[in-house]
């Protein structure tokens, strides 16, 4: 039972049941590229969105591990549904529940409980891994903020309602730090200053829109600023801690994809006959399946460990989250690829889900911190030293440390 409680086993069983419906629509979602609204409605009704919302805000107060169990089951069946379960439980909503005002918490809780998948807007055309080099600005004008800039690869662009937008805070012409701003988009394209300018065609996870956004004089009231403790200077680091939850979520989708592909591979190896015997009897295949099972279990152990590191209302540990995400994301690419191999030509066909698993698995080593950037983070933490990546970064560390 992996040390799960009875409630957690029951929750997982419930998720597994609804995930069968998610599996039935996964191929169509992939082919059409349409966001799976009917499935989202069912997930929300069953309580799988907003699962981590505390009781005082109308949710069941589930833990990060609870959400992980649900996300894995949906991701085995339909990774787009798995990603929706991630964003509707971790990530932006986690940041709001940790740092938001009462009104902000009420707003975010209501949205995710109704099935919204909030969007996190960090990446820009010229600021990917170097996120703090973002150019989008938020300028104070009286009691309002005015945001101008462009974001790219925003998951859920065009379908998400709640947006957590990161921008350079400018007050009286001076740069104060990077801040987070909450904006709710309605179903009719308002506010007008938030423009979804293009959907980016992608390799996998095709039912989930990835979009370019433009902010044109986008006005945000001061009470929609998400203020983390430590002021503008330290606030970004705190807000980005919410990404540790999102990272564990992304690692879980990768885990689910691998576990789903692995199960299909075991089934196929037992069913398919060549040379007058089940192909499972060939040692070459048996060892491939054995390695896949070991990798999936190792990833699950890392993911659960990271999930358990989160306190009741907290975020998972940064190191544990990065370790889990690096391993699970790269493991999923290997395992889905091997699973396709076990299926032979049928695996290569779009008639079967194996090629979708492979395409869907490819992105987790890129989004939410690439595997290389996360290795830098792991190295920083195990070495206990800053490893700045800019050319002049070490000069600054030396100046700060006076060494
Ligand atoms: P680059 O930073 O240009 O990196 C290119 C290559 O250089 C990579 O291999 C990288 O690992 C390597 N590299 C860069 N710097 C270093 C370094 N210091 N050390 C070693 N190697 C390095 N962003 C959002 O804000 N919100 C979202 O919802 C969102 N969703 C996404 C969904 C998908 C499907 C994808 C693909 C991306 C998404 N992103 C999102 C963006 C994502 O976070 C970035 O793609 C990621 O941070 C990497 O930035 P980049 O793609 O510009 O790559």
Bound molecules: flavin-adenine dinucleotide
Which CATH class of the largest domain?
Mainly Alpha
CATH topology of the largest domain, what is it called? Butyryl-CoA Dehydrogenase, subunit A, domain 3
The CATH level-2 architecture of the largest domain is identified as: Up-down Bundle
* Separation, N- and C-terminal Cα atoms: 51 Å
Q: Which sequence of SSEs, written as H and E, runs from N to C?
A: HHHHHHEEEEEEEEHHEEHHHHHH
* Structural class by secondary-structure content: alpha+beta
* Relative helix content: 40-55%
Mean pLDDT: 96
Description:
Helix 8 packs antiparallel against helix 9. This protein has helices spanning 6-32, 37-45, 64-77, 79-87, 92-99, 102-113, 231-240, 242-271, 283-308, 318-343, 345-348, 354-361, 371-383, 393-401; strands at 119-121, 137-141, 144-155, 162-171, 174-184, 194-199, 210-221, 225-226, 273-274, 277-278. The chain has 403 residues and is α+β, with helices and mostly antiparallel strands. A hairpin with a 2-residue loop joins strand 4 and strand 5 (174-184). The model has no long low-confidence stretch (mean pLDDT 96). The strands form two sheets. Strands 1, 2, 3, 4, 5, 6, 7 and 8 form an eight-stranded mixed sheet that branches. It has a two-stranded antiparallel ribbon with strand order 9-10. It is globular. The protein starts with 5 loop residues before the first helix and ends with a helix. The protein folds into three domains: 6-113, Butyryl-Coa Dehydrogenase, subunit A, domain 1 (Orthogonal Bundle); 119-230, Butyryl-CoA Dehydrogenase, subunit A, domain 2; 241-383, Butyryl-CoA Dehydrogenase, subunit A, domain 3 (Up-down Bundle).
């Amino acid at each position: 039972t992996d040390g799960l409680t009875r409630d957690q086993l029951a929750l997982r069983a419930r998720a597994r049941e609804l995930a069968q419906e998610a599996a039935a629509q996964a191929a169509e979602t992939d082919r059409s590229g349409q966001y799976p609204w009917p499935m989202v409605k069912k997930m929300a009704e069953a309580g799988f969105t907003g699962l981590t919302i505390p009781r005082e805000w109308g949710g069941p107060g589930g833990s990060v591990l609870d959400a992980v169990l649900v996300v894995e089951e949906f991701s085995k069946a339909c990774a787009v549904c798995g990603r929706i379960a991630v964003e509707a439980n971790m990530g932006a909503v986690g940041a709001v529940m940790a740092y938001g005002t009462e009104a902000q918490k009420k707003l975010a809780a209501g949205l995710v409980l109704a099935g919204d998948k909030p969007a996190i807007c960090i990446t820009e055309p010229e600021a990917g891994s170097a996120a703090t080099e973002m150019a989008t600005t938020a300028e104070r004008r009286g009691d309002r903020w005015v945001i101008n800039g462009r974001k790219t690869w925003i998951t859920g662009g065009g379908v998400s309602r709640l947006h957590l937008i990161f921008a350079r805070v400018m007050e009286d012409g001076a740069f104060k730090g990077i801040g987070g701003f909450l904006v709710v988009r309605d179903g009719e394209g308002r506010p007008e200053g938030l423009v979804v300018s293009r959907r980016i065609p992608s390799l996998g996870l095709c039912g989930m829109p990835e979009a370019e956004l433009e902010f044109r004089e986008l006005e945000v009231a001061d009470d929609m600023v998400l203020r983390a403790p430590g002021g503008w200077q330290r606030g970004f680091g705190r807000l980005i801690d919410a990404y540790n939850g999102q990272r564990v979520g992304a690692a879980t989708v990768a885990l689910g994809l691998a576990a789903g592909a692995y199960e299909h591979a075991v089934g196929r190896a037992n069913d398919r006959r060549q040379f007058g015997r089940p192909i499972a009897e060939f040692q070459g295949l048996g060892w491939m399946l054995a390695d896949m099972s070991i990798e999936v279990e190792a990833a699950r152990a890392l993911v659960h460990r990271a999930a358990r590191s989160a306190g009741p209302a907290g975020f998972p540990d940064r190191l544990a989250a990065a370790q889990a995400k690096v391993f699970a994301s790269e493991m999923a690419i290997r395992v889905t690829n091997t699973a396709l191999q076990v299926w032979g030509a049928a695996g290569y066909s779009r008639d079967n889900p194996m090629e979708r698993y492979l395409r869907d698995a490819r992105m987790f080593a890129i989004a939410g911190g690439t595997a290389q950037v996360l290795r830098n983070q792991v190295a920083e933490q195990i070495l206990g030293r800053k490893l700045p990546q800019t050319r002049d970064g070490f000069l600054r560390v030396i100046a700060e440390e006076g060494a």
